[in-house]
Amino acid sequence: xxxxxxxxxxxxxxxxxxxxxxxxxxxxxxxxxxxxxxxxxxxxxxxxxxxxxxxxxxxxxxxxxxxxxxxxxxxxxxxxxxxxxxxxxxxxxxxxxxxxxxxxxxxxxxxxxxxxxxxxxxxxxxxxxxxxxxxxxxxxxxxxxxxxxxxxxxxxxxxxxxxxxxxxxxxxxxxxxxxxxxxxxxxxxxxxxxxxxxxxxxxxxxxxxxxxxxxxxxxxxxxxxxxxxxxxxxxxxxxxxxxxxxxxxxxxxxxxxxxxxxxxxxxxxxxxxxxxxxxxxxxxxxxxxxxx
Length: 292
Ligand code: ATR
Hints:
Blueprint: E1 10-16, H1 24-34, E2 39-45, H2 51-60, E3 65-68, E4 82-83, H3 85-90, E5 95-98, E6 105-108, H4 111-121, E7 130-134, H5 138-149, E8 153-158, H6 161-174, E9 180-184, H7 187-195, E10 199-202, E11 228-231, H8 240-247, E12 252-253, H9 256-271, H10 277-291
Parallel strand pairs: 1-2, 1-3, 4-6, 7-8, 7-10, 8-9, 10-11, 11-12
Antiparallel strand pairs: 3-5, 5-6
Helix pairs in contact: 1-10, 4-5, 4-9, 9-10
């Protein structure tokens, strides 16, 4: 929990709507306490029509920075002074740094790095491997960017095929030598693509609480045992998809690691200190347990 707040406490926060159930305040405040930093991370519920004012407020109120979450990650970019090439390519900024003295607002995307770190922590090296990504929304963009950066071959399967096409088209020019393909999500494409892949990533909200009995993997389809599975959903920790994969004896990675590592990367951008990842992990897990 935060240290005593006094006249020198530095502020960061989370801009989103809603932010009530976020794990980030607990995660970051525990990290500040662990490093004895006089910092505090506060929830900042912001309606879409107030986003510009809220971002300008960070500068006016001398915040050191902020995280940005649903539904503002894309829209926030137009209120920033500049964004990194990664955030530009992904089309979303989840972290803002307010540069000291100048008040310049810089947008970063730490989701893609969080995904790669969690993947590597889970023992999977994507270099040269075939990956199937389910979904083509904002989260999928960070994941596809990360996988392409890491040298994987990616097929995006999405319920709305045009959305997957648009995603792949955007990245094709950025990664001209990478194999990127989009297909409609059907039982046939899932079965065929998974059969020759090494990694399956669910970026859709399917399986998230309270719909814990849902999974995009059909009950009657055997799980290929050469497939590792990463589910971005972290509530519950063990999604139905991960349970199905486990039964087949394959390696599974839950979404909490990505959340923690995107947070750790943001923490390091703001503080310049190495993030206490274990502390952040424990705080996030504990808050999730209490919430569920
Ligand atoms: P996020 O920013 O978290 O990625 P999003 O932009 O709303 O959220 O994207 C959600 C993704 O999950 C989309 O690809 C969506 O498919 P559509 O593009 O067809 O809407 C996918 N998705 C959501 N619910 C789904 C479901 N029941 N079955 C299959 N895909 C689903």
